[in-house]
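question for whoever is on the cluster today: can someone run the full assembly for these? two chains, 228 residues total. i dont have access anymore since they changed the login thing
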Amino acid sequence: QVQLVESGGGVVQPGRSLRLSCAASGFTFSHYAMQWVRQGPGKGLEWVSMISHDGGETLYADSVKGRLTISRDNSKSTLYLQLDSLRAEDSAVYYCAKFYDYSGNRWFDPWGQGTLVTVSS
Amino acid sequence: DIQLTQSPSFLSASVGDRVTITCRASQGINSHLAWYQQKPGKAPKLLMYAVSTLQSGVPSRFSGSGSGTEFTLTISSLQPEDFATYYCQQLNSYPMTFGQGTKVEIK
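^ ran it for u. tokens below:
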């Protein structure tokens, strides 16, 4: 079945870096754009970043632009999110999601289980 | 950016109740609206896309409607497993924003 598994979260000091991974299985990864969404503690969902199926296009939320970098390795069916210059407000559960966009229909499904990033000194 | 405002933010209801959640967009979103259900400690789960199309496996007590800038999610008869937080999302343009969420709790 279609599955996304995130990893790489942890506790990191402000200003440091972290790389998150999202391993995909059960579908042809290279055919789909992918998304990252985050959720701060006790907060709602915030869209973070998108990457096209071939990595040729990337988009970012203004709140993370210049500090987070999305990438993918289609040969490994893996999505990445590089988090640099981390701030306390980046503390969140980070979810990856498969983006379906076909015939005018769009949605995020499935989502991974999430990986927790805590930025704290 | 397109803002989505959900109402109410919190509602208390009983099993068997009919529940309606509203999602208002700050501008038109061409029916590119999805609804997700999230339970504590779990990832969001897609319920519906394109305003009213149920995702496979989602019970028919869930329905969606609306157009333009106002949309609704209705649960016709609330079941114990439906107590969760619900989010709308616009997928018309980036950033693909979410509403702030509606938490449905047991009365």
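summary bc i know u wont read the tokens: Chain B has a mean pLDDT of 97. Chain B touches chain A at residues 32, 34, 36, 38, 42-46, 49-50, 53, 55, 87, 89, 91, 94-101 (CB under 8 Å).
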